[in-house]
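Chapter summary example.
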Amino acid sequence: MEQNTPASLGDALATEPAWLHAWVMAMVVSHLIAIVFVAGRSENRWFIRYEPLAILASFLLAAVFMNWLYGQIGYVRLLGVAHLVFWTPAWVWIAMRIRTVGLASVFGKYLALYLVIAGVALVIDAVDVVRYLLGDGALLGRHT
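The structure predicted for these 144 residues follows.
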């Protein structure tokens, strides 16, 4: 990790402009809202929904991996690989499930919102990872 790199990923993100903080918050909230939908109720019985569990698991695994990766390489575009590796399988599975779930319920509307926010993030991450692999290894943020 280079000398000017902040001590933690959180510290590095703190160097970013307000609009990026808002975007990161939208990603975090869109994933954590899944907690509300883990348990569902139908015909007087409770059940577990697997889509929210997949969203939460992918979010937590990506966060752990991204923080580890940050410690290895610093605040660079390659960090997006954490989202690509862990979010993509959940995103694809939920995209395939959305027809079955439908958009009429609050849960269906939530899944659609998740697909949009996570989908945009995955496109941005894919571009960032490709840029890194093509030689753009500069540190991100205002601290550079």
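To summarize the output: The first strand starts at residue 39 and ends at 42.
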